[in-house]
Amino acid sequence: MSTLAPPQSKGTLYLVPTPLDFGCPPEYQAPIQDTLPARTLAIAARLNYWVTENAKSTRAFLKRVNTVHGLAQPIQTLSLTELPREIHKKGDHTPGHKPDSGPQIWLSPALAGHDIGLISEAGMPAIADPGSSVVRNAHALGIDVEVLVGPVSLMLALASSGLNGQHFAFVGYLPQDKQARTVKLRELENQALKTGQTQIFIETPYRNEAMVQAAISVLQPQTWFAVSGGLTLASSPSQPTSTTKRQHSAPIRQWKSTPPHLDLAAPMVFMIGA
Protein backbone atom coordinates (compact mmCIF):
# COMPACT_ATOMS: atom_id res chain seq x y z
CA MET A 1 0.00 0.00 0.00
CA SER A 2 1.54 3.28 -1.09
CA THR A 3 1.51 6.35 1.10
CA LEU A 4 1.18 9.90 -0.10
CA ALA A 5 4.13 12.18 0.50
CA PRO A 6 3.32 15.14 2.75
CA PRO A 7 2.75 18.37 0.85
CA GLN A 8 5.90 20.42 0.43
CA SER A 9 5.95 23.50 2.64
CA LYS A 10 6.34 26.84 0.91
CA GLY A 11 9.08 29.33 1.57
CA THR A 12 8.63 32.85 2.90
CA LEU A 13 8.87 36.12 0.98
CA TYR A 14 10.96 38.52 3.06
CA LEU A 15 10.78 42.26 2.40
CA VAL A 16 14.36 43.33 3.04
CA PRO A 17 14.99 47.05 3.69
CA THR A 18 18.29 48.66 2.77
CA PRO A 19 20.16 51.76 4.04
CA LEU A 20 19.08 55.13 2.63
CA ASP A 21 22.47 55.86 1.10
CA PHE A 22 22.18 54.44 -2.41
CA GLY A 23 24.48 56.32 -4.78
CA CYS A 24 26.38 58.08 -2.00
CA PRO A 25 30.19 57.81 -1.73
CA PRO A 26 31.37 55.17 0.79
CA GLU A 27 32.67 57.83 3.20
CA TYR A 28 29.10 59.05 3.73
CA GLN A 29 27.66 55.61 4.36
CA ALA A 30 27.06 54.86 8.02
CA PRO A 31 27.96 51.31 9.16
CA ILE A 32 25.21 49.02 7.95
CA GLN A 33 24.52 47.74 11.47
CA ASP A 34 23.63 51.32 12.49
CA THR A 35 20.47 51.22 10.34
CA LEU A 36 19.66 47.51 10.06
CA PRO A 37 19.15 45.29 13.14
CA ALA A 38 20.93 41.98 13.61
CA ARG A 39 17.96 39.81 12.62
CA THR A 40 17.47 41.66 9.33
CA LEU A 41 21.15 41.21 8.51
CA ALA A 42 21.10 37.54 9.51
CA ILE A 43 18.12 36.72 7.29
CA ALA A 44 19.55 38.69 4.37
CA ALA A 45 22.81 36.79 4.73
CA ARG A 46 21.18 33.36 4.40
CA LEU A 47 18.88 34.07 1.44
CA ASN A 48 19.87 32.52 -1.88
CA TYR A 49 16.98 33.82 -4.00
CA TRP A 50 16.20 37.50 -4.60
CA VAL A 51 13.70 39.58 -6.54
CA THR A 52 15.30 42.97 -6.97
CA GLU A 53 14.87 46.43 -8.43
CA ASN A 54 18.50 46.44 -9.52
CA ALA A 55 20.87 43.47 -9.38
CA LYS A 56 24.01 45.61 -9.20
CA SER A 57 22.83 47.57 -6.14
CA THR A 58 21.70 44.32 -4.49
CA ARG A 59 25.16 42.83 -4.90
CA ALA A 60 26.66 45.99 -3.38
CA PHE A 61 24.25 45.71 -0.44
CA LEU A 62 25.10 42.04 0.12
CA LYS A 63 28.82 42.85 0.10
CA ARG A 64 28.16 45.24 3.00
CA VAL A 65 26.09 42.59 4.79
CA ASN A 66 28.95 40.12 4.35
CA THR A 67 31.32 42.39 6.29
CA VAL A 68 29.26 41.96 9.48
CA HIS A 69 27.39 38.70 8.84
CA GLY A 70 28.91 36.14 6.50
CA LEU A 71 26.76 35.15 3.52
CA ALA A 72 25.58 31.56 3.24
CA GLN A 73 26.77 31.44 -0.38
CA PRO A 74 29.14 33.49 -2.53
CA ILE A 75 27.40 36.43 -4.17
CA GLN A 76 28.13 35.17 -7.68
CA THR A 77 26.14 31.99 -7.00
CA LEU A 78 22.99 33.74 -5.77
CA SER A 79 19.86 33.93 -7.93
CA LEU A 80 18.93 37.59 -8.56
CA THR A 81 15.81 38.27 -10.66
CA GLU A 82 15.29 41.90 -11.71
CA LEU A 83 11.80 43.35 -11.91
CA PRO A 84 10.83 44.60 -15.40
CA ARG A 85 11.75 48.20 -16.19
CA GLU A 86 8.09 48.95 -16.92
CA ILE A 87 7.32 48.49 -13.22
CA HIS A 88 10.12 50.91 -12.29
CA LYS A 89 8.75 53.62 -14.55
CA LYS A 90 4.98 53.15 -14.28
CA GLY A 91 4.59 51.43 -10.92
CA ASP A 92 2.77 48.26 -9.98
CA HIS A 93 -0.76 49.70 -9.85
CA THR A 94 -1.10 52.14 -12.74
CA PRO A 95 -4.06 51.83 -15.16
CA GLY A 96 -3.49 48.99 -17.59
CA HIS A 97 -1.08 47.14 -15.32
CA LYS A 98 -2.41 44.00 -13.66
CA PRO A 99 -0.41 43.22 -10.51
CA ASP A 100 -1.71 39.64 -10.34
CA SER A 101 -0.63 38.82 -13.92
CA GLY A 102 3.13 39.08 -13.35
CA PRO A 103 5.30 36.04 -14.06
CA GLN A 104 4.98 33.52 -11.26
CA ILE A 105 8.55 32.54 -12.01
CA TRP A 106 9.59 35.33 -9.61
CA LEU A 107 8.08 33.30 -6.78
CA SER A 108 8.68 29.77 -8.05
CA PRO A 109 11.54 29.15 -5.57
CA ALA A 110 9.14 29.86 -2.69
CA LEU A 111 6.65 27.38 -4.12
CA ALA A 112 9.49 24.85 -4.03
CA GLY A 113 10.18 25.57 -0.37
CA HIS A 114 12.92 28.23 -0.60
CA ASP A 115 12.82 31.63 1.08
CA ILE A 116 13.05 34.70 -1.17
CA GLY A 117 14.17 38.27 -0.49
CA LEU A 118 12.43 41.25 -2.11
CA ILE A 119 14.68 44.30 -2.21
CA SER A 120 14.83 47.79 -3.74
CA GLU A 121 17.74 50.19 -4.17
CA ALA A 122 17.09 52.11 -0.94
CA GLY A 123 14.70 51.79 1.97
CA MET A 124 11.67 49.50 2.12
CA PRO A 125 10.59 47.67 -1.06
CA ALA A 126 6.98 48.19 -2.19
CA ILE A 127 6.76 51.58 -0.41
CA ALA A 128 7.47 54.35 -2.96
CA ASP A 129 9.49 51.64 -4.73
CA PRO A 130 8.72 48.63 -6.94
CA GLY A 131 7.62 45.33 -5.44
CA SER A 132 3.96 45.48 -4.45
CA SER A 133 2.95 43.22 -7.35
CA VAL A 134 5.35 40.56 -6.07
CA VAL A 135 3.82 40.80 -2.59
CA ARG A 136 0.31 40.55 -4.04
CA ASN A 137 1.27 37.46 -6.03
CA ALA A 138 2.74 35.91 -2.88
CA HIS A 139 -0.53 36.38 -1.00
CA ALA A 140 -2.48 34.93 -3.93
CA LEU A 141 -0.22 31.85 -3.98
CA GLY A 142 -0.44 31.28 -0.23
CA ILE A 143 3.19 32.28 0.39
CA ASP A 144 3.90 33.84 3.77
CA VAL A 145 5.11 37.45 3.65
CA GLU A 146 7.32 38.90 6.37
CA VAL A 147 8.51 42.51 6.53
CA LEU A 148 11.94 42.91 8.12
CA VAL A 149 12.84 45.92 10.26
CA GLY A 150 14.74 48.79 8.65
CA PRO A 151 14.54 52.42 7.48
CA VAL A 152 11.52 53.78 5.59
CA SER A 153 12.33 57.24 4.24
CA LEU A 154 8.73 58.48 4.17
CA MET A 155 8.14 57.64 7.82
CA LEU A 156 11.47 59.07 8.98
CA ALA A 157 10.74 62.30 7.13
CA LEU A 158 7.19 62.58 8.45
CA ALA A 159 8.18 61.83 12.04
CA SER A 160 10.92 64.47 11.97
CA SER A 161 8.75 67.16 10.29
CA GLY A 162 6.33 67.94 13.11
CA LEU A 163 3.44 67.74 10.64
CA ASN A 164 0.30 65.65 11.15
CA GLY A 165 1.38 62.03 11.52
CA GLN A 166 -2.16 60.79 12.23
CA HIS A 167 -3.61 61.80 8.87
CA PHE A 168 -1.38 61.84 5.80
CA ALA A 169 -1.21 60.81 2.15
CA PHE A 170 1.68 59.91 -0.14
CA VAL A 171 1.11 61.16 -3.70
CA GLY A 172 4.36 60.08 -5.38
CA TYR A 173 5.93 62.38 -7.97
CA LEU A 174 4.47 65.73 -9.01
CA PRO A 175 4.24 66.76 -12.70
CA GLN A 176 7.46 67.98 -14.31
CA ASP A 177 5.68 70.63 -16.39
CA LYS A 178 5.89 73.95 -14.54
CA GLN A 179 2.25 74.92 -14.99
CA ALA A 180 0.94 71.46 -14.11
CA ARG A 181 3.23 71.34 -11.06
CA THR A 182 1.87 74.69 -9.86
CA VAL A 183 -1.70 73.41 -10.17
CA LYS A 184 -0.80 70.24 -8.25
CA LEU A 185 0.98 72.14 -5.46
CA ARG A 186 -2.08 74.34 -4.95
CA GLU A 187 -4.32 71.28 -4.98
CA LEU A 188 -2.19 69.58 -2.30
CA GLU A 189 -2.06 72.78 -0.23
CA ASN A 190 -5.84 73.10 -0.35
CA GLN A 191 -6.23 69.50 0.79
CA ALA A 192 -3.78 70.01 3.66
CA LEU A 193 -5.35 73.25 4.86
CA LYS A 194 -8.91 71.98 4.49
CA THR A 195 -8.52 68.56 6.13
CA GLY A 196 -5.28 68.74 8.12
CA GLN A 197 -3.94 65.84 6.06
CA THR A 198 -0.17 66.04 5.47
CA GLN A 199 0.68 65.71 1.78
CA ILE A 200 3.90 63.78 1.08
CA PHE A 201 5.70 63.62 -2.27
CA ILE A 202 9.14 62.93 -3.71
CA GLU A 203 11.35 64.12 -6.55
CA THR A 204 14.51 63.03 -8.32
CA PRO A 205 17.61 64.72 -6.82
CA TYR A 206 18.45 66.88 -9.83
CA ARG A 207 15.00 68.51 -9.64
CA ASN A 208 15.04 69.06 -5.85
CA GLU A 209 16.08 72.71 -6.08
CA ALA A 210 13.39 73.49 -8.65
CA MET A 211 10.77 71.83 -6.43
CA VAL A 212 11.79 73.86 -3.38
CA GLN A 213 11.69 77.11 -5.34
CA ALA A 214 8.31 76.23 -6.85
CA ALA A 215 6.83 75.50 -3.43
CA ILE A 216 8.17 78.73 -1.95
CA SER A 217 6.70 80.78 -4.80
CA VAL A 218 3.31 79.00 -5.00
CA LEU A 219 2.30 78.13 -1.43
CA GLN A 220 0.66 80.59 0.96
CA PRO A 221 2.77 82.27 3.68
CA GLN A 222 1.09 80.38 6.55
CA THR A 223 1.36 76.93 4.92
CA TRP A 224 3.94 74.62 6.46
CA PHE A 225 6.47 73.11 4.07
CA ALA A 226 8.99 70.47 5.09
CA VAL A 227 11.94 68.91 3.28
CA SER A 228 13.91 65.93 4.55
CA GLY A 229 16.68 63.71 3.22
CA GLY A 230 19.83 61.84 4.16
CA LEU A 231 18.65 61.24 7.72
CA THR A 232 20.66 58.02 8.07
CA LEU A 233 23.86 59.24 6.37
CA ALA A 234 27.10 59.55 8.29
CA SER A 235 27.47 63.13 6.96
CA SER A 236 26.12 65.35 4.21
CA PRO A 237 27.19 63.85 0.85
CA SER A 238 27.75 67.06 -1.07
CA GLN A 239 28.20 69.83 1.49
CA PRO A 240 29.64 68.33 4.70
CA THR A 241 29.74 71.55 6.71
CA SER A 242 28.31 72.46 10.08
CA THR A 243 25.78 74.83 8.46
CA THR A 244 24.35 72.28 6.03
CA LYS A 245 20.98 70.88 7.06
CA ARG A 246 19.30 67.61 6.11
CA GLN A 247 15.81 68.77 6.95
CA HIS A 248 13.81 71.93 7.40
CA SER A 249 10.19 72.37 8.47
CA ALA A 250 8.62 75.82 8.71
CA PRO A 251 5.86 78.07 7.33
CA ILE A 252 6.54 79.41 3.84
CA ARG A 253 7.00 82.92 5.23
CA GLN A 254 10.01 81.64 7.19
CA TRP A 255 11.41 79.84 4.16
CA LYS A 256 11.37 83.22 2.41
CA SER A 257 12.71 85.34 5.25
CA THR A 258 15.41 82.93 6.42
CA PRO A 259 16.32 80.48 3.64
CA PRO A 260 17.92 77.32 5.06
CA HIS A 261 21.22 75.94 3.81
CA LEU A 262 19.98 72.53 2.66
CA ASP A 263 21.89 69.74 0.98
CA LEU A 264 19.58 68.98 -1.95
CA ALA A 265 21.92 66.56 -3.72
CA ALA A 266 20.47 63.51 -1.96
CA PRO A 267 16.97 62.03 -2.52
CA MET A 268 14.48 64.18 -0.62
CA VAL A 269 10.98 63.82 0.79
CA PHE A 270 8.69 66.88 0.57
CA MET A 271 5.68 67.58 2.77
CA ILE A 272 2.90 70.17 2.86
CA GLY A 273 0.88 70.62 6.03
CA ALA A 274 -1.41 72.91 7.97
List the helices and strands and how they pair.
Layout: E1 12-15, H1 32-35, H2 38-46, E2 49-52, H3 55-68, E3 79-82, H4 85-90, H5 108-111, E4 116-119, H6 132-140, E5 144-147, H7 153-161, E6 168-173, H8 178-195, E7 198-203, H9 208-218, E8 224-228, E9 247-251, H10 252-257, E10 268-273
Parallel strand pairs: 1-4, 1-5, 2-3, 2-4, 6-7
Antiparallel strand pairs: 7-10, 8-9, 8-10
Query: Radius of gyration, rounded?
Result: 21 Å
Query: What name does the CATH topology of the largest domain carry?
Result: Cobalt-precorrin-4 Transmethylase, domain 1
User: Poorly predicted ranges (pLDDT <50, ≥5 residues)?
Assistant: none
CATH class of the largest domain: Alpha Beta
Put simply, the count of helices is: 10
The appropriate CATH architecture of the largest domain is 3-Layer(aba) Sandwich
User: Which structural class fits the helix and strand makeup?
Assistant: alpha/beta
Helix content: 25-40%
The gross shape turns out to be elongated
Major sheet size, sense and barrel closure: 5 strands, parallel
Number of domains: 2
> Strand sequence of the main sheet, in spatial order?
3-2-4-1-5
Superfamily (CATH H level) name of the largest domain: Tetrapyrrole methylase, N-terminal domain
Strand content: 15-25%
Outline the structure in words.
- The protein has 274 residues and is an alpha/beta fold.
- The chain has two domains: 12-147, Cobalt-precorrin-4 Transmethylase, domain 1, CATH 3.40.1010; 153-273, Methyltransferase, Cobalt-precorrin-4 Transmethylase, Domain 2.
- Helices cover 33% and strands 18% of the residues.
- The protein contains ten helices and ten strands.
- The strands form two sheets. It has a five-stranded parallel beta sheet, with helices on one face.
- The model has no long low-confidence stretch (mean pLDDT 87).
